[in-house]
Amino acid sequence: MRMTPRMTTHLHQFNSFNCSYYEPPDFQRYINTDVLRDQISLFHSNCHGLSANWDSFHEPICNLSCPTFSFDVIGISGIYQCKNVIRLRLTEYHDIISQHREDGPRDGVGLFIKDNLIYKIRDDISVFIPHTFESVFIEKTNTHGTNVVICVIY
Questions:
Q1: Which domains, and CATH codes, for the chain?
Q2: Closest by alpha carbon to 114, among 149, 74, 144?
């Protein structure tokens, strides 16, 4: 598909997020400021098996959190099916919302959402086509302003 000037302008209207890359020490300094107070914070990890790699996933989440900050939503791809879902719990987060393949144990997607956030699962726009397009969508309710749709796609 060729991008026309009108399409490019239209796309730029929705590109209002400023995403930055930080090394862990820089990130710790950044979150100890008031900059993030009114912003939503997102984190994503491709775990290649969340249950098997729980410690490798959990440790950075803990290291990047502090008493005044933790991520609002954590997206995960490559969850794989897990029989021990009880192990896959994060303190101060709702139980994981996830979708898995029925034809095998690999891949799948999920979201951890902080306990203090109000949200609804958006099954009406979630698409799960194994091996092609795997997603989970939620809509975060905002008391002031517009609600925000958040997803993880693999």
A1: 40-153 (3.60.10.10)
A2: 74
Written as six digits, the tokens of 113 are: 């959402």
Instruction: Count Cβ atoms below 10 Å from residue 29 Cβ, excluding itself.
Output: 10
**Nearest-5° Cα angle at 142, 148 to 27:** 70
Confidence of residue 71 (pLDDT cuts 50, 70, 90): confident
**Percent of the chain surpassing pLDDT 90:** 20
- For the segment 8-59, what is each residue's pLDDT rounded down to a tens digit? 344 444 455 666 777 777 777 777 665 555 678 888 888 887 877 888 888 8
Triad 119, 76, 28: Cα angle to 5°: 90
- Angle among Cα 137, 141, 142 to the nearest 5 degrees reads 135
Q: Which tokens go with 57?
A: 């996933």
Helix (H) or strand (E) holding 62: helix 54-63
Q: Answer positive or negative: Cα dihedral of 42, 48, 50, 54.
A: negative
